[in-house]
Design the sequence.
């Protein structure tokens, strides 16, 4: 297997806080990685560095063997990376379909001049409708994105990420704010995305779903990796358990 | 057609080009510019110098277009670093800088401006027809852009730059394109203004004029080409038709601007669109 994503010694500091402290990891094609850790561990920061939304103080990012550290986000997306936001960011004034069409037409929008010379959206509209159906949003195409409830907006985020035809998707808390049934359905959709051959990196606090669907777990704490491997083995590690659950209880200590 | 009518129609044509071009920057791409007068002025001065030096009308038009666009792209680079209200303040600064700079340049006529600019040879009616033709080209181009993938990407960048970049849209390149295109048309309007008046002073391109252009865009309906065209025509005619409006132009336009933002933020275009939708549903 080949690495679709390599993170090499990446670090970033915000004022007095070392948010990410020299993380080095690689993600192989076909991986289904859960990136977990307590609040403030640096998960979202790391994801944003990988996506190019934050510039690290040091370290390198490679996508498919190509160094993209100095590339902007749009350039990384064109190399097969897709991202969903922790706080959903739909284009509220556009229809649900147009939100996805815009991603599906990423070949047309690679430069302003190319975009100026293209008008036809039929093929992209058809593809967008298929993607929306695959994430469970069939029938919502004509609605304004700003009118959708959170559960559907989370699905729209996923649909937009899939529209850019990615090799790897970084999903930042796609289950947050969803009720149990919605979360289970969304998790199933993410599994389906993975079954289609797309590598998935999932940042999520819903441990139940993470343990159920992920094949590999990376645990961050205070900006450093403290665990990496098969989910049950990683969670059984006392260091991970202490950091994630918040220290051993007296009962644990006595045992 | 009387000389007065020819003059009014010419000014309407120039204002339509200016308002529609500003709408491409602020309406389509969401980059609020309150310094459009500076790009208009850059085009006017470049065309005036070209006419004085060569008497070549196409060359003067080209000079106006290029001068407006070059200054626009330079200001566009500022849009890569500052956003929304800070960009608006930056563009106001550019307008003041332009006026201040030109006032102190003897080669641009300083306070006195440039007079005795050679005529195009087309006569007042010929100039008017040229202005109207180029206004139609500007409107047609604006309508085309709004339907193209460029317009689609502009809307995304205007609404949420970061979300746009995660769909592979290089927001910076699109913002520069919006400034480059919009200010090129403003420069073109400057050249036409030079042909129309054959005499320019920097006062015609000041911040107050930029605010009036923004008023046309907002009152017409930011983002709507036809709404902006209607507002440019209406707000150019209004002071001519009603003497009170002419005397208290800033007060009336300012009041209308506040009223529209408060009551109908989408401008006249949104009001008409909503009525149309309601009528169809009824």
Sequence:
């Amino acid at each position: 297997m080949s690495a679709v994503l390599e993170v090499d010694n990446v670090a970033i500091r915000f004022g007095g806080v070392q948010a990410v402290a020299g993380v080095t990891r690689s993600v192989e094609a076909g991986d289904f990685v859960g990136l977990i850790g307590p609040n403030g561990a640096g998960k979202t920061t790391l994801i944003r560095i990988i996506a190019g939304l934050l510039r690290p103080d040091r370290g390198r990012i490679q996508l498919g063997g190509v160094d993209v550290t100095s590339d902007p986000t749009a350039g990384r997306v064109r190399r097969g990376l897709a991202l969903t936001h922790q706080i959903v960011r739909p284009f509220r004034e556009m229809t649900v379909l147009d939100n996805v069409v815009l991603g599906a037409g990423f070949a047309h929008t690679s430069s302003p001049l190319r975009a100026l010379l293209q008008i036809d959206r039929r093929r992209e509209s058809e593809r967008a409708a298929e993607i929306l159906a695959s994430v469970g949003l069939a029938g919502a195409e004509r609605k304004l994105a700003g009118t959708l409830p959170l559960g559907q907006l989370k699905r729209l985020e996923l649909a937009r990420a899939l529209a850019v035809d990615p090799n790897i998707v970084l999903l930042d808390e796609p289950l947050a704010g969803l009720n149990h049934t919605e979360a289970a359905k969304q998790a199933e959709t993410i599994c389906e995305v993975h079954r289609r051959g797309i590598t998935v990196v999932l940042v999520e606090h819903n441990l139940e779903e993470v343990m159920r669907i992920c094949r590999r777990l990376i645990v961050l704490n205070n900006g450093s990796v403290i665990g990496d491997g098969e989910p049950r083995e990683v969670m059984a590690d006392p260091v991970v358990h202490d950091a994630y659950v918040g220290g051993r209880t007296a009962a644990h200590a006595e045992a | 057609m009387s000389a007065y009518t020819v003059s009014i129609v010419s000014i309407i044509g120039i204002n339509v080009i200016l308002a529609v071009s500003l709408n491409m920057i602020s309406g389509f791409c969401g980059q609020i510019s309150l310094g459009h007068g500076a790009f208009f002025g850059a085009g006017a001065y470049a065309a005036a110098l070209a006419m004085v030096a060569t008497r070549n009308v196409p060359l003067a038009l080209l000079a106006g277009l290029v001068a407006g666009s070059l200054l626009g792209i330079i200001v566009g680079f500022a849009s890569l670093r500052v956003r929304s209200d800070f960009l608006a303040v930056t563009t106001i600064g550019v307008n003041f800088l332009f006026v201040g700079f030109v006032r102190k340049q003897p080669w641009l006529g300083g306070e006195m401006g440039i007079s005795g600019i050679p005529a195009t040879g087309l006569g007042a009616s010929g100039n008017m027809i040229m202005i109207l033709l180029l206004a139609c080209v500007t409107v047609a181009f604006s309508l085309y852009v709004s339907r193209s993938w460029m317009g689609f990407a502009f809307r995304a960048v205007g609404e949420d730059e970061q979300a746009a970049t995660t769909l592979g849209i290089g927001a910076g390149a699109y913002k520069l394109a919006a400034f480059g295109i919009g200010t090129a048309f403003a420069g073109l309007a400057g050249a036409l203004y030079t042909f129309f008046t054959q005499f320019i002073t920097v006062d015609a391109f000041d911040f107050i004029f930029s605010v009036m252009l923004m008023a046309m865009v907002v009152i017409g309906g930011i983002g709507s080409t036809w709404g902006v065209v209607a507002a440019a025509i209406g707000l150019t005619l209004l002071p001519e038709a009603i003497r009170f409006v002419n005397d208290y132009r800033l007060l009336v336009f300012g009041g209308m601007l506040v009223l529209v933002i408060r009551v109908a933020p989408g401008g006249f275009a949104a009001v008409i669109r909503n009525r149309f939708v309601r009528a169809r549903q009824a």
Notes: Chain B has one domain: 3-281. The domain at 3-281 of chain B is CATH 1.10.3470 (ABC transporter involved in vitamin B12 uptake, BtuC).
